[in-house]
Design a protein that fits this description.
heterodimer; A: 214 residues; alpha/beta; Rossmann fold; Arc Repressor Mutant, subunit A; 2 domains; 53% helix; globular; B: 380 residues; 5-stranded mixed sheet; 9% strand; elongated
Chain lengths: 214, 380
């Protein structure tokens, strides 16, 4: 795939460029701030953009704002943001704009090379990739009464895998259950969350969002 | 807070004598004006008007007193107007104490004349030693009493003026409380700024390096050939050593442990060793310092030296840490380009740290340099 990177730490940027090149991806540009990122995206039309959230000048959420903007202007480009900490509100901002071709990963996830590359592939294929840690923390936080508490433990693990952006087949593999069991669980989840019969993918996304907003 | 500089003794003596004269004026005023206005003051329909007249005159005399305090005693009064009641009360009390003072001064003069006569008598040696002794004891005792009385009365004069013109004890206390509240808030602010900086150091330095290191290892594991994997492992090993160095530096910036174990002098030596620009260090502190003062002094030097090396393009930095009496003075001067901003976050933080110890921080950094940063820290 053709990738553009935005990361202000030179060391990490170089590492990512090398890693992606070794994997046979094409890195069109690697930049250190959000403005340059937007310029490069305009110039090159990549398949996927990977950007750090905290970048110069203020080291707050420049990368996230750029990512949201790219999603508005060029929805066909996949966007993966790397976050310093689990920020529920950042994740929600990014996913409400649309939850296709989008990833929200903790920065440390890059260290687990396989998982990172896998997440990139998923986003490139049109799916979503949400960091397992984000999902885990969100699950811990959802203790107050909301539809999620009505889910069985099995349904919760399925939703968790769904939120990470896996396909039904991948969820089945991950949890060692059959595809039909996955589908049954998903239907139960959609019912409990009050999601009507919308098209398959956006329903999945809505479930994830419900999950992030809870 | 700076105390005003005390006036020279001769001026103060003159002030006391002038005070005796103005007290006579006050007495005269009260007698004359009291006699003229007395009847009107008693009659309800004219009371207010008479009172206002009396106060207006008193206000003039009070202004004279105020001028006398400023001129002879270097008192500094804030701009505020006392009301009529305060003015009259002040003038009455001040006149009374001034007259008493005049009496005591008269007694001292009288005693001086007596002492002169006594001295003349001594030279003619027409006295027994019992007479001499009794005269000396009596004279000495009276002199002591007179001096005590004068001291008490001059104190009283100063206190009365402060109560009427300000700043009164209460205002001084209030001012001190305001100062403390401000410095306390500034300290909290400075601590937060420090924490933000530490977080940034950890995130931008250590964490990025660790992620990069893990990535190198991940790539090594996926390496297509053993040679490639070896090369990546080699890099990862080097990276790991650099992470350690970085971590040590961050921890040191958070708090230099050498301060506790080796003291200020050694910790400052560390600052100059780590600085790329040559640092000339003068250290003259004969007695041990309180640890809060040591820490503040350390951070003043370390911040100033780092700024000079980083932003001022200085080619020499001189540091002087000196203790004189109950004050530790820290001076850092560099030959750089100047233009340091005292309102910048680093210097503001230092200022707060120093102010919290009742010290002062002064930054002098004209464009084109040199930059001088001085801190005075009380270490009592």
């Amino acid at each position: 795939m053709r990738v553009i990177l935005a990361e202000d730490s030179t060391l990490l940027r170089e590492g990512l460029v090398r890693l992606l090149a070794e994997e046979g991806h094409e890195v069109l540009a690697a930049v250190g701030d959000a403005d340059a990122l937007l310029r490069e995206v305009e110039a090159h039309a990549p398949d996927v953009v990977v950007t750090d959230i905290r970048m110069p000048p203020d080291h707050t959420d420049e990368g996230l704002r750029a990512a949201v903007r790219i999603r508005e202007l060029r929805p066909e480009i996949g966007v993966v943001v790397l976050s310093q900490y689990v920020e529920r509100n950042y994740a929600a901002q990014l996913l409400t704009s649309s939850a296709e071709r989008v990833g929200y990963l903790l920065k440390d996830r890059v260290a687990q090379v396989e998982e990172f590359l896998d997440a990139l592939e998923r986003v490139h294929a049109g799916g979503a990739a949400i960091d397992p840690e984000v999902v885990r923390q969100l699950l811990i936080r959802t203790t107050h009464v909301d539809p999620l508490t009505r889910l069985t433990p099995r349904e919760r693990t399925v939703l968790e895998a769904l939120a990470e952006g896996h396909t039904n087949a991948a969820i089945g593999e991950k949890l060692h259950i059959s595809l039909s069991a996955v589908e049954k669980n998903l239907n139960a989840i959609f019912d409990k969350l009050g999601l009507h019969r919308t098209t398959g993918y956006s329903r999945r996304v809505l479930a994830v969002l419900r999950y992030l907003e809870s | 807070m700076r105390e005003p500089v005390a006036a020279p003794l001769l001026m103060r003596v003159a002030g006391v004598l002038v005070g005796c004269l103005t007290a006579l004026l006050g007495l005269l005023y009260f007698v004359v004006a009291g006699a003229a206005l007395g009847a009107f003051l008693l009659w309800p329909r004219t009371r207010a008007r008479a009172h206002a007249l009396l106060a207006a005159g008193a206000r003039r005399l009070t202004a004279l007193e105020r001028g006398r305090r400023s001129l002879f005693f270097h008192d500094v009064f804030p701009e505020h107007r006392a009301d009529d009641r305060q003015i009259l009360r002040y003038l009455a009390a001040r006149t009374y104490s001034g007259l008493l003072c005049a009496v005591v001064v008269g007694l001292v003069d009288f005693g001086a004349v007596l002492a002169g006569i006594f001295a003349v008598g001594l030279t003619r040696s027409s006295m027994t030693w019992v007479d001499v002794l009794s005269q000396v004891v009596l004279g000495g005792t009276l002199l002591f009493l007179a001096v005590q009385g004068l001291r008490a009365l001059t104190e009283q004069d100063a206190r009365l003026a402060r109560e009427c013109f300000g700043p009164s004890e209460r205002e001084l206390l209030q001012r001190r409380i305001d100062e403390l509240a401000t410095s306390r808030a500034a300290v909290v602010h400075a601590v937060d700024a420090e924490r933000r900086r530490v977080e940034r150091d950890l995130h931008d330095g250590v964490q990025q390096r660790l992620v990069a290191l893990a990535m190198l290892l991940g790539r090594a594991r996926r390496g297509r050939t053993p040679e490639r994997a070896d090369a990546l492992l080699e890099q990862a090993h080097k990276e790991a050593r650099e992470v350690l160095t970085e971590l040590r530096e961050v921890a040191w910036r958070v708090y230099p442990t050498a301060l506790d174990s080796l003291g200020l002098r050694e910790a400052l030596g560390g600052v100059s060793e780590r600085c790329a620009v040559p640092v000339r260090m003068e250290y003259d502190v004969p007695v041990p310092l309180p640890s809060a003062v040591e820490t503040a002094a350390y951070f003043v030097v370390s911040e100033a030296v780092n700024n000079a090396a980083k932003h001022a393009a200085a080619d020499e930095i001189s540091v002087r840490v000196r203790q004189r009496g109950a004050t530790l003075s820290v001076l850092v001067r560099d030959t750089g380009v100047g233009g340091a901003d005292p309102a910048g976050s680093g210097l503001t933080g230092l200022g707060s740290r120093v102010a919290a110890l009742d010290g002062t921080l002064h930054v002098d950094s004209p464009l084109g340099g040199p930059t001088t940063i001085t801190a005075e820290l009380p270490c009592a």
